[in-house]
Amino acid sequence: MTSTRAVRAGRRTLEVHRPDKVLFPVGGGGKEYTKAGLVDYYRSVAPWMLPHLRGRPLMLERHPDGVGGPRFMQKNTPGHYPDWVHRAELPKKGGTVCHTVCDDTATLVYLADQACLTLHRWLSRADRPERPDRLVFDLDPADDDFGQVRQAARLVGELLGELRLPSGLMTTGSRGLHVVVPLAGSHGFGEVREFAKDFADTLAAAHPDRLTTAALKKDRGDRLYLDVQRNAYAQTAVVPFTVRALPGAPVATPLTWDQLDDPNVHARRWTVADAVDQARTDPWADLPGRGRSLGPARRRLDALRG
């Protein structure tokens, strides 16, 4: 087994340790992938992934022994990380946390070498941590019925359209979809979460047989859960184009609303083998560069709620 491999990433050359180590074993219908394969994927997808990472505090999901081994959810940046890896020290109850920030390809490759399979990002940026510029609706099915997710996504998209809020669709690489709404960052987490909750409640009330906002699983029945809990300070969502720690190395992948009609699309449709091809199509090209303020949408939603 090769002990190290030199990898060029931007202006830096990094040593990848144990590149032949299997992180994704064969099983569950998925192919085998090594650490070298993970590094190669993140290098390739970096041009499309980094815009979703820059300036954002991260929680890192590490699997040193690969999928099936122990999992570590890492918030604090270890002292041995190189000085060139950016950090953001942010307040938490009773202290601070020094989060890793991934601003370049070299950091992405370094994290892959640390067996960081999945990157989870804050919905706000390190320089304005209390002001989210993303709102996320997590569509969580009662079972593995993706048809249920597809229906719910269309309902969420239609109501966002009525409120004139542009949105992007993303497979989670696990079971469901995320609907991501770019925001202007002009509201605090309290206002954003209240809006998301009222939006979800409105939609669930209109479709009580299909959707629920019940936090307890026992209260959901076979309905899809419209989860808005991620819209809070220090909460995270998986980054677009990040790999998930599941057999076959599925990837959380943006897609167009038209692609939702493709019967072959499901939560794990893209993997490290083909997610870069999807990235090249620029599925979120229609999303505005700057997000919207929630003020006008809030007024429209209040008018709909009567």
Describe the structure.
This protein is of the alpha+beta class. About 25% of the residues lie in helices and about 25% in strands. It contains six helices and 16 strands. Strands 13-14-10-12-11-16 form a six-stranded mixed beta sheet, covered by helices on one side. It has a four-stranded antiparallel beta sheet with strand order 6-5-9-15. It has a two-stranded antiparallel sheet with strand order 1-2. Helix 1 (about 35-50) packs antiparallel against helix 2 (about 105-115).
Can you summarize this structure?
By secondary structure, the chain is of the alpha+beta class.
What is the chain-wise order of helices and strands?
EEEEHEEEEHEEHEEHEEEEHH
Q: C-alpha Rg, in Å?
A: 19 Å
**Strand count:** 16
Largest sheet: 6 strands, mixed
Q: What is the residue-averaged pLDDT?
A: 96
Distance between the termini: 66 Å
What is the 3D form? globular
Strand arrangement within the widest β-sheet reads 13-14-10-12-11-16
Helix content: 10-25%
Percent strand: 15-25%
Which stretches are low in confidence, meaning pLDDT under 50 for 5 or more residues running?
none
Determine the structural class based on helices, strands and strand pairing. Answer: alpha+beta
User: How many DSSP helices?
Assistant: 6
